Amino acid sequence: MAEVGEIIEGCRLPVLRRNQDNEDEWPLAEILSVKDISGRKLFYVHYIDSVNKRLDEWVTHERLDLKKIQFPKKEAKTPTKNGLPGSRPGSPEREVPASAQASGKTLPIPVQITLRFNLPKEREAIPGGEPDQPLSSSSCLQPNHRSTKRKVEVVSPATPVPSETAPASVFPQNGAARRAVAAQPGRKRKSNCLGTDEDSQDSSDGIPSAPRMTGSLVSDRSHDDIVTRMKNIECIELGRHRLKPWYFSPYPQELTTLPVLYLCEFCLKYGRSLKCLQRHLTKCDLRHPPGNEIYRKGTISFFEIDGRKNKSYSQNLCLLAKCFLDHKTLYYDTDPFLFYVMTEYDCKGFHIVGYFSKEKESTEDYNVACILTLPPYQRRGYGKLLIEFSYELSKVEGKTGTPEKPLSDLGLLSYRSYWSQTILEILMGLKSESGERPQITINEISEITSIKKEDVISTLQYLNLINYYKGQYILTLSEDIVDGHERAMLKRLLRIDSKCLHFTPKDWSKRGKW
Amino acid sequence: MSKLSFRARALDAAKPLPIYRGKDMPDLNDCVSINRAVPQMPTGMEKEEESEHHLQRAISAQQVFREKKESMVIPVPEAESNVNYYNRLYKGEFKQPKQFIHIQPFNLDNEQPDYDMDSEDETLLNRLNRKMEIKPLQFEIMIDRLEKASSNQLVTLQEAKLLLNEDDYLIKAVYDYWVRKRKNCRGPSLIPQIKQEKRDGSTNNDPYVAFRRRTEKMQTRKNRKNDEASYEKMLKLRREFSRAITILEMIKRREKTKRELLHLTLEVVEKRYHLGDYGGEILNEVKINRSEKELYATPATLHNGNHHKVQECKTKHPHHLSLKEEASDVVRQKKKYPKKPKAEALITSQQPTPETLPVINKSDIKQYDFHSSDEDEFPQPRLDQANHSCENSELADLDKLRYRHCLTTLTVPRRCIGFARRRIGRGGRVIMDRISTEHDPVLKQIDPEMLNSFSSSSQTIDFSSNFSRTNASSKHCENRLSLSEILSNIRSCRLQCFQPRLLNLQDSDSEECTSRKPGQTVNNKRVSAASVALLNTSKNGISVTGGITEEQFQTHQQQLVQMQRQQLAQLQQKQQSQHSSQQTHPKAQGSSTSDCMSKTLDSASAHFAASAVVSAPVPSRSEVAKEQNTGHNNINGVVQPSGTSKTLYSTNMALSSSPGISAVQLVRTVGHTTTNHLIPALCTSSPQTLPMNNSCLTNAVHLNNVSVVSPVNVHINTRTSAPSPTALKLATVAASMDRVPKVTPSSAISSIARENHEPERLGLNGIAETTVAMEVT
Fold this sequence. Notes:
- The complex is a heterodimer of chains A (514) and B (777).
- Among the domains of chain A are: 11-63, SH3 type barrels (Roll), CATH 2.30.30.140; 231-406, Gcn5-related N-acetyltransferase (GNAT) (Aminopeptidase, 3-Layer(aba) Sandwich); 412-495, Winged helix-like DNA-binding domain superfamily/Winged helix DNA-binding domain (Arc Repressor Mutant, subunit A), CATH 1.10.10.10.
- Chain A contains 13 helices and 20 strands.
- In chain A, a hairpin with a 2-residue loop joins strand 7 (236-238) and strand 8.
- With 514 residues, chain A is of the alpha+beta class.
- Chain A has a five-stranded antiparallel sheet with strand order 11-12-13-14-16, sandwiched between helices.
- With 777 residues, chain B is mainly alpha-helical.
- Among the domains of chain B are: 108-184, no CATH class; 229-287; 401-452, no CATH class.
- Helices cover 54% and strands 3% of the residues of chain B.
- Chain B has helices at residues 32-35, 47-50, 53-65, 86-89, 119-131, 136-149, 157-163, 168-184, 226-275, 281-292, 306-315, 320-333, 362-366, 383-402, 440-445, 448-466, 483-493, 502-514, 524-535, 550-584, 586-600, 603-615, 621-629, 631-637, 641-656, 675-689, 693-702, 711-719, 725-742, 745-750, 758-776; strands at 17-21, 406-410, 415-424, 430-434.
- The longest helix of chain B is centred in the first third of the chain and has 50 residues, at 226-275.
- Chain B starts with 16 loop residues before the first strand and ends with a helix.
- Chains A and B meet through helix 4, helix 5, strand 8, strand 10 and helix 7 of A and strand 1, helix 2, helix 3, helix 4 and helix 6 of B.
């Protein structure tokens, strides 16, 4: 049993948390920060049953199980703010059985994470490696081993499981190359950029260079430090809703201490207090996002906002979005992006529901950079609507597109779901002509849907539709697939009507730099 | 299930996939093992997150149940309850327009203050409102202005008074409140703003700094040369716009002040009216009191466009100022002291030192730096423009100087020749026009060494670098520009004209020297031979020294041919009109043709012609010897006859021409680039000076070491490097000597390729004629 005063950064202990089913659970968490507010200590905990930081929060000592505290090992203490990648500060060595026992219901499964890489391969993949990383089996169970894993991604991003699988490639012509590019967006422009230079950067002196200038997401977390690992805004008031941010967002630092940050619902300007917002509203006459409406059906509208022409709105939108997007980067200005804001109309105006951003010119066929449904609107079909709209734009452009990587977990689920439904819709709609079995090529699916070929294949695989039968690949639609799809489509009431879209794509390459 | 014995074919995206449904479906057991041959596509997620258990649970739920179960979703922090005061906060309703909403691109902001009042401000406002009326918006505007006017340093009360157009008491109250509030404020500003990046890169890792500018240097595409030009235009445009901003700012300020004045006058009048001050007594009283007080006036800072202004004055200096400076430096280094022909100025008076001129700061230019994707250095955008203008202005000066006589000395026969003026003859020869003055007897006795001694000290410095080449033994070349100067001159002129390489210059120097020293291997014969080779510049076999490759030379020749063709085509009509007269009056032919030619030789072609001569200064010896023998054949074989012969012609003319005043002609080839503006004058003067030809020629040969400097020369020297002067001179001599006995004009013409245009032939004809005429006399 430890005293409250002894709890320092890096300690690990079970923390009381209530899950979705309103049950108490005691997942293991790590103390990231301690603060003292009028004599009362608050602890920022990161739940290590999940890599995700969404649920991390400030807790009082009452919720800590001090009996099971593990103090950080002294030598494991790493500098926290030097910007070194993967420097999960002060992570103690982890003893799996103890934590499994301690964490109660939710079993952390780090073993699964790391065991997918077998050790010798991994060492091979990391030129230089990290000298202080002991080559032992226990090392792969450390959570701060993630830095190593990240490097594996960089070096061979296309092969998640390098040890297994036969080399029969799905796409011999360009599969590997394309996937490598997709996982390392923005890098292919630099001619001499090998995968390894990332490593040399990381391991040499810990001075990370400026991130790439294309795209909107950070794929490597070399800029991850203790500040950005913690949510800094307690609560945001936006129109009728109060939102609990999930992640760090670089709102002005003096505003981070406020209990509530007040945002104007229409221009998204941030204010200190309700009074400020009130005053602002006397001066702000916007009742819709400050862009051109390009789609309207029923109450749903889409507005297009140019990140160069409407900087303040774009920046405010990004700041808000960053609260809910982990990988989003706000390092650079918004100039090369277009923002498509989905709104729902009522008598008060056009209320923002979600948005996606899109690079004006994408070298990687991205048709979406960041995509977000605001939490109050989540799990109601708006995300799929946003995705559908993004592909609708791609159809007008006559291109196929794919979302920028990395996808978040929610992003992957949403996209998988959209892709599945869209592709199944096509497959089930195919009628056999003159008694013959209906057939379709992957390219045709891609053309019809504007979904990039790779995504079509991954979806077919995910749904287990592709099978090899009698010397050729076939698509099989089992009963439960068909049933499941039909049930899902019944629930999917919100759809994009392409007739309501009034959109002419611009050729941004001819406009100089954005 | 047996192990897969064959390799599954790769999945072909273009190959139709048959769709099996329901009962048709084959037994999946037949497929399972094969499925493993198809590797999984990446999900696009970060690996560590992909295996997150909430996600895995959700995925498996999706796969198993084909729909999400409530408990299987990824947990997120819950959103809080609805805001109950929403309707009070967002007042009024907004009717959805029928049309799609379209915002105007240049919707002028109705300049609302960014500052939003808080409840603390409200209490102040309530307090203030007891004494005077102040609206929230008014207050916000005040705070907004104060905030935006102060950066790290708060504005002073005086500045605040200028910024705010309010009652003094109110300003004081608000100002004091603002200062207090600002001190207590944690942030850098009362208007919360996102942290800006700092230019020094110290904020590169600051997580609170966002929306950094993409500092990518402007990239121009390799295949689009005009990107650079348009970049320059943009810079210019930007400068002009910023100037416009400045002007508008000033106007705005002026008008504001005017309004202020009006208001104040009105107020004064009103006050006086209330006081009954109809006679102005009170006013005068007040005025006296006022004047005792110190008037404080700090100009209000203009925030918009301030930095533009600074840039403005830094970059505005035209380049030609510094160029002029160079030129005058050159003058000082020269040994001869050009004098204005005023009597009292006898010997050397230094050129008036140039006023100290603002020098362009390199770093100022740098701000417009951008990296061309091409390797070669891109000239600073504005410099060459400036060069152009300066050249024009200097040419104007030149015209004046041309008719000025100066005290002149010669280096080689060391003596002072008294007052002379210098002109540049065709082919770059320098012609001295002497003038007799009452001081002549005195001047003749002046020791030229005396003149030299003034400058020699400065020259020796450059000397060593100058003479790293073979003929370093000859110590008598002090009157040369320093190497670095020449280089810089060349560099500054590079864009305007084709410049011979520096090697040529040194060649010429060496030849100049060797002709004086009989012991050297290079003799007169060689020189003359070289000159013959000059006539055959088009010949393929010429081995070119002096750093110009054969290839360059060839392309150059081709360009030359083309230019000549074009010109001649233009000339065609003119020529044809003269055709008859030329035939009937063969004597007049020379002059008329030459007139014609001089008109048509535009500067570009002159450059080319000049450089053509330059480009083959010293051919190999054996070849030269051969060519000497077959001199006339070569001439016949000339591919672009007019090009070469024009040059020849012009050099001849330079030799033969003499000024109206009878004077010794001192000839020195100086700059080929100058031929363009010199040719016309020489051409016209040629006919009348033909009789003097012989003496001129000999003079030229003998005095080829004479170098003369006058102000005119200075200018020319700054932008040229002399090619082998003797070669040029002797070329003409030798050519004419060789040719005349053997070649008649008619034969020369006949041997020209038949497909040549008539006027071209005529042109040549004319040249041949004049050459003959020259020799005959």
